[in-house]
Amino acid sequence: MNRALLRLSLACLAMFVLLLLNINYVQAFKATKLAAEPGNIRVFDQQFSYQRGAIMAAGDGTDLKIAESRLIKGTTTYQRYYPQGKVYAPVTGYDTIYSQSGIEQAENSLLAGTSPQLAVHNLTALLTGKQKQGATVELTVSPAAQKAAYDALTADGGHAAAVVAIQPSTGAILALASYPTFNPNDLTTFNGSTLNKVDHRLLTDSTQPLLNRAIQETYPPGSSFKIVTSSAAFSHGLVKNPNTLVNAPEPLRLPNGNDLINDGGEICGDGHPPIIQAFWMSCNTAFGELGMKLTAPTLRQYSSQYGMNRPLSIPLPVVPSVMPKGRYWLDPSLTAFSAMGQFNDAVTPLQEAMFSAAVANHGKLMYPYLVQQVVGPGLSQIQRANTRLLSQAASPTVAGYVQSMMYQVTNNPGGTAYATAGPQATGGITIDGKTGTAQNGLNNGNLNDAVFTCFVPGSNGQPSPIAVGVIVQGGGFGADAAAPIAVQVIKAYLGAHS
Amino acid sequence: MSVPANIDQPVLMPHGRRRTELVMLGFAVAVVLFAYGAVGLGLKGKLPPGLPVQVLVFAALMLAAHLAIRRFAPYADPLLLPLAGLLNGLGLVMIYRLVQSGRNGNPGFHVTDLSTSATTTQLLYTTVGILAMVAVLVLISEPRVLQRYTYTLGALGLVLLAIPALLPASHSVVNGAKVWIILGGGFSIEPGEFARLALAVFFAGYLVAKRDALALAGRRVLGIDLPRARDLGPVLAAWAASLLILIFETDIGASALFFGMFIAMLYVATQRTSWLLLGVLLFLAGSWLTALLFGHVMERFTIWLHPFQGSNPTNSSFQLVQGLEGMAFGGLFGTGLGQGQPYHTPLVQSDFIFSAFGEELGLVGVMALLLVFGLLVQRGLRAALAVTDPFSKLLVGGLSFVLALQVFVIVGGVTGLIPLTGVTTPFLSQGGSSLVASWILVGLLIRVSNSARKPAPQPIQDEGMTQVVRAA
Fold first, then answer.
1. Confidence band of A497 (pLDDT split at 50, 70, 90)
2. 8 A C-beta contact, residue A145 and residue A489
3. What is the spatial distance between Cα A472 and Cα A219, in angstroms, rounded to a whole number?
4. Nearest chain B Cα distance for residue A375, angstroms
5. Cβ separation B271–A1 shorter than 8 A
6. Cβ(B297)–Cβ(B310) under 8 Å?
7. Residue numbers in A near B384 (CB within 8 A)
8. Residue B401: which of A2, A8, A46 has the nearest Cβ?
9. Per-residue model confidence as pLDDT tens digits over B147-205
10. Which residues of chain B have a CB within 8 Å of the CB of A1?
């Protein structure tokens, strides 16, 4: 009978081997997938049983805590808290018991401590009996600029608006504000039904407070797009330099028989002004004609060089700013409108800041980013930002030409933003910019959106410190509604960095 | 052939290795002691107040068992008691941990159907189990003694199996399985656990008597010797009995164990592959038939194949999903005793106790647990191989196999390897019947391993000039 017993032993061995293989499969191989199963109670409960990492605004040299997890007195549960309330909501996003948005979502695995990059930390914590802890995320955001941006948008008087500030030489985002916004502290409750009520209120609010207008919504760029059109014209030799004369009729008869007119039917200089004057006065006909000569594909190529027509991750997802290839996009009459930022052109406020940032950085457009570094529980650096080139928007020469034209917009008494962003308005700070007053809506029936993009030029060998993009929905003239917001952000930032 | 003894050298008395057993037992008790302490430290950061008394009682029980083995089975395998003791002790620790969940200011929820006194009760059952094991050693001086009671135990086994089926549901159903005798006062017995042991003895006795007849070749078809039709009787009877358990007691696990044990013993007795094939075919046919006829059998298959599909995780497969997620949560090293959330899994104290170990001790912990079970089975099979008496061989071979099969059915079930069926995890699950039956099983293994390892009677030494002849 021993032969049969030996075979029986082999059967027993096989059963144990199968069990061992299977528990390895469940607990090692498939563990991550099981942890991500929707409704995993353990993972759900655990996220509040240890301290989630803090989020800091580190753009002014000192760290300002903008999100932290606090131990609820008398319990072992941590609750999220946003000391700055609404000010940083478009940046941090929220962290509810069910989901996250903003940085809370984009950096969730590091904040929660579940990222593989923290595996060594977690193992050390396990072995030394310390409590598991999330990593701290330090942002490039400047508290001074962010506060100014939030205050300026709030004071504007109820228009939906957004502002983004970038450091042109690195792409570091210094401010990112959207209005109306929400208070993320309203969403940190552990009570599911309270949360549902708040969530319902925010979702049904017609002012869309959860919408991050700075990066998730696009608006027609209006005349600010003339930065792209003139870059293309210089680069293609269509216009030699800023003093080259261009044709600026009033009106411009389009191939389809319609007329393109300047704002208010204004005559642009003598009808043949140098391009620099057409730019500071923001004459539509001059750029409309240049656009038709350049053709739509060329314009689109330059818009791409300025960072358009592609999604970005900062690491929050940014909707692409576009000059789309629509059904009629090759029609020259419509290209004339595209060339001055109308027709189907649509950009985010972030893109507005990127237009200026590219010009300010001698044509080099840096990839915008929010996370400066991630610091582990042991204060060791886990991740740091590496600045990288997004694209070469224009040659340094062309960028210089565009910069000289943007200087006139704010510093020439005839410039569109002389009154609101000129030397008197800024208290001596030199700003180069471009206004936009974008018609939108069906048959352009809505109130015009106010657009302003600008930067503080570098001086004495120092790179440009800041570029700002502002869009005020229904704000009217860019110079009136948008430029003052940009000026306040710049003043606050330079004030904190002088 | 005869070998003359060398009378100049002292004869080495083969030793029973009882000291090894004591040392290993000390090791097992130490592991249990530390695990018990770790539960308290994990839950509250301090040692449990009941620790000294409960561990002392446990250690005393193990020592008593050891002394009984010294007295009644001095040549027994020295690993059997420490392995079983370690499993029993860890089961106690986990039950203590689960009782504490959500009580006395500890984190977590109450585990339903687990009373505050469950740890003490389980320690009491351990005592009964050790007493039962010692009784086996005392009453059954030689394994062959049991052979006399082949048919008595067979009848007893059948009666024990049948009782829950015959009792009204109010006296026999717990958690959907009609396998209990509910005696009132919160006390109930699962007779199937004992029936399995009685039937193992019956099968061993019956098969030893009839194995020549069963091994007789019938016709040979396609290289397989088919049995004669009239020899099929006992096989069909066992199959019918296991189907009846399945149908009337809705207990797939017990039915599989019962039939698996029978087929394994039949194979060992006859060495005929044809019986094995026939058994497997009958089992598959039975499963398929019952799956078609009974919704609850089909549902087990659905849960097994699609645990995460649709609304299954919150309904039918909730328990399995909780167990799996718990084990995954534990990962490689586990959360540590007292620091996981095993209380989310329904019936975690009985059917799903293995997943609680997986969660809190991690992959390394449950691999060690499985190896302990594997070692216990291996020591049993070793005794079966070594013992000469065919009845003992068959009995211990069958019991070792059914232990392995039980671990496979329940651990495979909770880890999603095979469809889940409710059988207890030997030594670990909360509950008296399973624990006492497991200790009786270990008692039988110890008894047979003693016979296997006992040295042949020594020839009388130095009797003047008498020539000593030893039969080889």
1. confident
2. yes
3. 9
4. 25
5. yes
6. no
7. 5
8. A8
9. 999 989 988 988 888 888 888 888 888 777 778 888 877 788 889 899 999 999 999 99
10. 268-269, 271, 390, 393-394, 397
